[in-house]
Amino acid sequence: MKKLMIFGCLTAATLFACTNTDKPKEPVSSDTMTVTEKIPEPITKDTSKVYDFVALDSQPSFPGGTHGFYEYLRTNLKYPPMAIKNNTEGKVYVSFVVETDGSLSDIKIDRKLGAGTDEEAVRVLKKSPKWIPGKYKGEVVRTKFNIPISFTLTDKKA
């Protein structure tokens, strides 16, 4: 008799535990359908967050990699006349954000060289083809990127 009573209690407990209390007792009707379950809330992601490129699983890259980027700079960078006249050489340090679609935004000069080189570095980056965006935990994310752009005169007078 005790075994039957325990079995009956376990059966009742199992039925009670398996009952879904999230469903409404009566369906809610509309003109086109009957809703009997709750619709889950959409997951919202913070798409405005900008990640530092060193913290990523996969860093942003120029199509063709580093070699492709420097080839792009070599063919598109125009040495400013004032920089040629003043014999200005060196590096312009720039930062920018690689957006989730690969476009570049928020282009800034972090360390200037002057004589028109800073403006030329910004011009070339604005004209850049889309990059391959960075990834964090498998998701494409906005990424801050920093690079130096070198200006070197090749035809020096001896």
TrEMBL record:
InterPro entries: TonB-dependent_transducer (IPR051045), TonB/TolA_C (IPR006260), TonB_C (IPR037682)
Topology of this chain in the membrane: Single-pass membrane protein
GO cellular component, as recorded: plasma membrane protein complex
Pfam families from the UniProt entry: TonB_C
Domain TonB C-terminal positions: 64-158
Keyword Metal-binding belongs to the record: no
Compartments where located: Cell inner membrane
Principal location class: membrane
Signal peptide: 1-17
UniProt KW Zinc-finger keyword: no
Gene Ontology MF, one: energy transducer activity
Keywords: Cell inner membrane, Cell membrane, Membrane, Protein transport, Signal, Transmembrane, Transmembrane helix, Transport
Gene Ontology biological-process annotations: protein transport; transmembrane transport
Family: Belongs to the TonB family.
Protein name: Protein TonB
